[in-house]
Amino acid sequence: MSAVPADTTALDLGEITLTFVPDGELRADPAVAYPAGHEDIFTDGLDVVDEDGMLLLSIGAILVTAGTSRVLVDVGIGDRRIPLIRPGASRDGYMGGGALLRNLSALGVEPEQIDTILLTHLHADHVGWIGDGDATFPNAEYWVGEGEWQYWIRPENSGGPVGPRPNELEIIGSRRRRLVDGAEPVDGITAVDTAGHTPGHFGFAVRGTNACAFVVGDALHCPAEALRPDLAWVGDVDGGAAIRTRRNIAAHVRDTGAVLVGPHFPNAVFMEYSSSGLIPFATT
Ligand SMILES: [Zn+2]
After folding, report:
1. What are the E-state strand segments in the chain?
2. CA of residue 76 to ligand 1 center, whole Å
């Protein structure tokens, strides 16, 4: 078996539904993604590399449907391809997309219907559909952590290939709301400080009438990190905080029985812990 990008998949929590909406994919040499050592990604029976041995991540958004509200958690990378090239790497990687709006439309959701966008963080593969000139989602407010916002508007951090583009910052800034730990920007969705990967990274605990879920953003890139939190991702801004956050998320999900929602996970973004490790959550 080899990893493939996750398909559109829905998770009904009871009066609140999460749907993974694909946009594209990321492929990277595992030795580049985990420079301190990557052999652990092969030890838990998870399919995380493609047929060429490249680490595969899905890229997309989580659509949350709750009553009349239509919420997106992150908005993919957009219709572009960004090379991921590291000096000394044996193989070059990339991340790219372009399918998000088409896949949203197939679900009967048009951009005008999105009222809220919750941003886990502002990396390029999470803000790519914010807008090129005009806002793609003209009726949406953008919720982002204050630490995240302050980090990316600094001149030394803005303008790089992995961060938000100036126009995206402008659009977000025009309708920006501040995420705070424990706040509930949407009924049933609680913001959780998960800093480490980036300085103002947030995850989201989602509570339905039947079950709950935790959207991890990039606190976890690959499901192997949920079992082995010490796996150190190349792009973590604060590696020590990122490891603590991964441990906290694993403990929270195990303690609460929440469905683990990893928008970058290949094959299946909805997962749960079992006696045998981590397995896809049975969705309908
Ligand atoms: Zn990402």
Report:
1. 9-12, 17-28, 55-66, 69-73, 81-84, 93-97, 116-118, 131-132, 134-135, 141-145, 176-179, 189-193, 202-207, 212-215, 259-261, 270-274, 277-280
2. 8
Whether the CB-CB separation of 278 and 260 falls below 8 Å is answered with yes
What is the DSSP track for 240-276? Answer: HHHHHHHHHHHHHHHHH-PEEE-TT-SS-SEEEEETT
- Which residues, chain by chain, have CB under 5 Å from ion ligand 1? 125, 218
User: Domains, the chain, ranges and CATH?
Assistant: 9-280 (3.60.15.10)
Q: What pLDDT digit, counting tens, does each position of 3-41 carry? A: 999 999 999 999 999 999 999 999 999 999 999 999 999
Ligand 1 center to residue 242 CA distance, Å? 14
Give 50-59 pLDDT, tens digit per residue.
999 999 999 9
